[in-house]
Write a structure and sequence with these properties.
Layout (H helix, E strand, L loop, with lengths): L1 H18 L8 E4 L4 E3 H4 L5 E6 L2 H16 L7 E7 L5 H12 L4 H5 L1 E4 L3 H8 L8 E5 L5 E6 L2 H12 L1
Helix pairs in contact: 1-7
Length: 166
């Protein structure tokens, strides 16, 4: 079974590296706790996973991903960031969107949840977004290189992400 996962991961990885060879956008964002944060800087120097959504539907899936990643012992020691791109939302509703996202999150989780309100096109290009309703997941090494990326439901992709981390 492990060889099958490794083979799938290797096949995926060849296409992934070519597609995500550009650097992560250096977009300033704000955490749900109100701190300014640039994800491209925050992930430097350690392994990290970024889970990002571009729609309300994707946000639900991002939450499932974040919960699964935090519960997985294979992800111990890996910084996990969740992000929401809300540039397309009208300015007058962004506060309500952020308030809704804060509900049920601890202060620590709010510190690792970044709201982005600009550079939507850059992020979509970086992540090769094809399905707006899907959460997108990226595993980065300490140097910021992409080790793995995918999109979709956590239960389908999480085993591949765990295998990539090893």
């Amino acid at each position: 079974m492990r060889r099958v996962l490794f083979g799938i991961l290797l096949a995926l990885g060849m296409g992934v590296e070519a597609g995500l060879s550009q650097g992560m956008p250096a977009t300033p964002g704000e955490t749900l706790s109100g701190k300014k944060l640039v994800l491209a800087e925050a992930v430097k120097g350690h392994a990290a996973v970024l889970v990002i959504g571009f729609s309300r539907e994707a946000g639900d899936g991002c939450g499932v991903w974040a919960k699964a990643l935090h519960a997985d012992p294979a992800m111990a020691g890996v910084a996990i960031y969740e992000a929401a791109m809300i540039e397309k939302a009208p300015g007058f509703v962004r506060g309500m969107i952020k308030s809704g996202m804060r509900k049920g999150l601890t202060p620590v989780q709010q510190d690792a949840f970044v709201v982005l309100t600009q550079d939507d096109k850059l992020w979509r290009s970086y992540l090769q977004v094809t399905e707006e309703k899907d959460p997108y997941v990226v595993l980065l090494d300490a140097g910021g290189s992409v080790l793995w990326h995918g999109h979709g439901a956590a239960e389908g992709l999480e085993p591949l992400l765990r295998a990539a981390k090893k």
